[in-house]
Amino acid sequence: MIAHVYIGPLILWSILSTGIVYGITKSALYRSPIVYAALLPAVFGLLTTIMNTVVYSAHSLYTFVEKQVAVNIFKCLYASLAALPGLIAYQRISRQKEKTSGRWAVYLGFIYVFIVTVAGIVFACINNYDVPKSDSLRQFITRGNYGVIGVFALLLKIYGKRLPEKAKITLLMYTLFYMISEIFYSVAYDAHYFMFDPISVALVQCPMFACVVVSVLYGHIWSMDKPLDDEKDESESELEFEDEDDDNENDNIEASDVTDNFLQV
To answer: Which branch of life, at top level (predicted)?
Structure first.
């Protein structure tokens, strides 16, 4: 029987993974590198929940240790890979707007995510065995994604003023959710909270879930181009102004005709 602490995260990540796959198969809007990248943390988040359920129902110590390694690897992957949608979006933006600093910041972000992911996998493999471990490596793993938050903040600073309003707001939301999840993950880790404690679920997994959801729903507008809805609103307002101008011209013509007739009389 599944413990109640796993039910919430299991439902969340199952719905998200299924929803992303459904969206990709049904709509071309979601067939983009950003959504494909968002599918990775969703899948690994689901696998982390499933493996945790299996681990804590294991009956032998060997099985527990063996599967706990997989749990730690999946947990590292889902947290690190959640940064990919944002980095891919900024890569697209950097191609639209020639800024060398922004482009190098994006490359730095990709390299940093790769380093953190590899270090996390290595640490996960040795964490449950009697192998000497470096405290500095442990601190880097628990706080490593702070560097990604710094890269996102730098990129928002570089491109924020020139991004469309909706793109800027949703990218900021994405960054804030990611930051909240990572900060409270390190706090929960230092306080020895279990990953599926209600506090950890509310402050670590739910913000990360929201981060991925935002990237899926709004990733298609993360560019320098204005969303189609905004363009449509602008075109409609322009038509309204044109109609008003035409009405004013007609009124002026009628008024001039009346004046001419009066003078002729």
So the answer is: Eukaryota
**Is residue 20 domain-shared with residue 65, that is, in the same domain?**
yes
Instruction: Retrieve residue 92's tokens.
Output: 């697209």
124-133 average pLDDT score: 64
- 10 Å CB burial of residue 36 (0-12, 13-18, 19+) is middle
pLDDT of the residue at 248:
52
| 220 secondary structure, DSSP code | G
* CATH assignment of the domain containing 195: 1.20.1070
pLDDT one-digit tens code per residue, 34-50: 999 999 999 998 988 88
Are residues 213 and 94 both part of a single domain?
A: yes
Identify the top-confidence range among 90-99, 178-187, 207-216: 207-216
* Res. 13: pLDDT tops 50: yes
Split into its structural domains, the chain has a count of 2
Which residues span the domain enclosing 178?
4-225
- Widest pairwise Cα distance in the chain: 111
